[in-house]
Design brief:
Number of helices: 12
Distance between the termini: 35 Å
Shape: globular
Order of helices and strands: EHEHHHEHEHEHEHEHEEEEEHEEEEEHH
Largest sheet: 9 strands, mixed
Number of strands: 17
Structural class: alpha/beta
Strand content: 15-25%
Length: 446
């Protein structure tokens, strides 16, 4: 936990423009970010706008060919209030902090959506997000509490009504008897990753392709020296297993079927529809999300400890996944799979204690005037997001920016814990923002 608390405020320390909110100079510190997924790129954006020099090192970058895409690209990328649909969020501290982090991200994605041209470039839309339940929500205490927190959180368009069951063509034989909805950002991950890469580069980030394999702590001094850095930020997802020596990290294999959603084979689906793991039959998820104007994602699976990426449309779990979706929404029986990219699969970067946003707690012994002295590490960790990287992105990055200040002031590290007071509304609404920031936004060349 940081001793400073500078919330993320669009227009003050975060900018949608293709140049940094605060320009660095010769005395500005440099942050080395390891990891080029959504977490690394959004942390780069936040730090660049605070006047830091940033270098991002990654073994691979977002790709847009038939080869395996990054986990960040495969994600369903529907903004969710935690715990997410896959139901793997169990650590109380991480869950409480995530409820703050997700609202920071919600407001920033909403600000991007408020500008149509910017939203198109970033691949972000605001759509109705519907959640269905097999009994009155009051009979599911955890889900009832989550619904009440969502209703009070400030998300747009919240309503509870069983009418959405009939409106969306849900088969009543599937057993859905209660429902609520709200507006949520839905992100076209391929488009947004490309946009994020261009944005942070235009703000001054340097990209370096390299595979770093061993524990960052053991090579901290070498990396700081080689990249002329003052701080190292670990955004490596599953690779934290080795780079942070965190044996509690594990893969949570997921997959999504991609079908054509052009209105020809079935009525076009323009809202997300989901049954969460703890409310679903046999704990199996129903997850239906419009990726963009022409592709619909059908999911999902959450398989802990599975490292292989060998699923096909004929795999038993994929057949069951599609059958669940078709039983839930019968019109999908006529859906055509995307011939160019029929199935997306990847490994969610999960962790037993869920998300870690904290400094490295180990200290290093250095020689100071002939005396051995313990000094804090200059490494910060931001990993373990599971399937919630997009939903928590800006919130986690804001906390990281505060931890960077702690490192630069050589303050001692402490374990992640709750702040005594969490400011939920840490991002201004579009109406409160300088209109130039919204209307000018990102230039067309991005």
């Amino acid at each position: 936990m940081s001793v400073v608390d500078h919330p993320l405020i669009l227009g003050e320390n975060l900018s949608l423009e293709p140049f940094p909110q605060q320009s660095p100079d010769g005395t500005s510190s440099t942050v080395l970010i390891v990891g080029g997924g959504v977490t690394g790129l959004i942390n780069a954006w936040v730090l660049l706008d605070r006047g830091y020099h940033v270098t991002v090192v990654s073994k691979e970058w977002a790709s847009f060919t038939e080869q395996q895409r990054l986990t960040s690209q495969i994600a369903g990328a529907l903004w969710e209030f935690p715990p997410a649909v896959c139901g793997q969020h169990t650590d109380i501290l991480s869950l409480k902090k995530s409820k703050h982090w997700c609202m920071v991200a919600y407001d920033i994605w909403a600000a991007i959506v408020s500008n149509p041209s910017l939203a198109a470039l970033a691949g972000v839309q605001m759509r109705a997000s519907n959640f269905f339940f097999p009994c009155p929500i009051e009979n599911l205490p955890a889900q009832h509490q989550k619904m009440e927190e969502i209703a009070a959180s400030g998300v747009h368009g919240f309503s509870r009504s069983i009418e959405s069951i009939h409106k969306h063509g849900i088969d009543p034989r599937y057993g859905a008897v209660d429902a609520y909805e709200h507006l949520a950002p839905v992100i076209d991950t391929d488009r947004c990753m490309e946009w994020l890469m261009l944005l942070v580069q235009s703000k001054g980030a340097k990209f370096h392709t390299e595979t770093i394999t061993s524990n960052l702590f053991s090579q901290e001094q070498e990396l700081l020296h080689r990249f002329s850095a003052d701080v190292i930020l670990n955004c490596t997802g599953l690779s934290a297993l080795s780079l942070a020596g965190d044996k509690t990290c594990y893969p949570l294999r997921g997959a999504l079927i991609r079908v054509i959603n052009d209105g020809e084979d079935f009525p076009k689906v323009d809202s997300s529809l989901a049954i969460t793991a703890d409310a679903a039959q046999d704990n199996e998820i129903v997850f239906i999300v419009p990726r963009n104007d022409n592709v619909l994602l059908i999911g999902g699976v959450a398989q802990p400890g599975r490292w292989d990426l060998d699923l096909t449309l004929d795999s038993p779990e994929i057949k069951r996944m599609r059958a669940r979706a078709e039983a839930f929404l019968p019109s999908l029986k006529h859906a055509r799979v995307d011939p160019e990219y029929p199935i997306a699969q990847g490994l969610r970067p999960a962790r037993e204690r869920n998300i870690r946003v904290e400094r490295e707690l180990r200290t290093r012994t250095v020689d100071l005037h002939g005396e051995p002295t313990e000094e804090p590490s200059r490494i910060i960790h931001n990993y373990g997001h599971g399937g919630s990287g997009w939903s928590l992105s800006f919130g986690c990055a804001a906390d990281v920016a505060n931890l960077v200040e702690d490192v630069l002031h050589n303050l001692p590290a402490s374990k992640m814990k709750l702040q005594e007071k969490i400011v939920v509304e840490s991002v201004r609404t579009p109406e409160q923002m300088d209109s130039r920031l919204v209307s000018g936004a990102i230039r067309a060349r991005l």
